[in-house]
Design a protein that fits this description.
This protein is mainly alpha-helical. Helix content is 65%, strand content 0%. The longest helix is centred in the middle third of the chain and has 27 residues.
Length: 107
Amino acid sequence: MSEFNPNEVTSDDRLLAALAYIFAPLVPIIILFLEDKKNRPFIKAHNAQALAVGVIMIIVVPIIAAVTLGCGSIIWLIMFYWAYKAYKGEEVNIPVVTDFVKNQGWA
């Protein structure tokens, strides 16, 4: 994700990137329809990761929560940490997901 220039990241970019993590996968899908936003490097990098992680979380979290009697849903708190980092304008490196998204050319 290092292809974006931190000086070109606007507060709007940071907000949309943070919202993409908090409300994944809904907001990342909406951002894909916003022509003026989806091609901005900062938003594109975070949006692709948030979409991939959101889909994974929808599948994995209910299974883990059922096995651990609801305690597995704490995994969602990780998304808030990534949203915080995105809002600060930082890169988020998610193990496996970041490399997958980059290799697919999505970010």
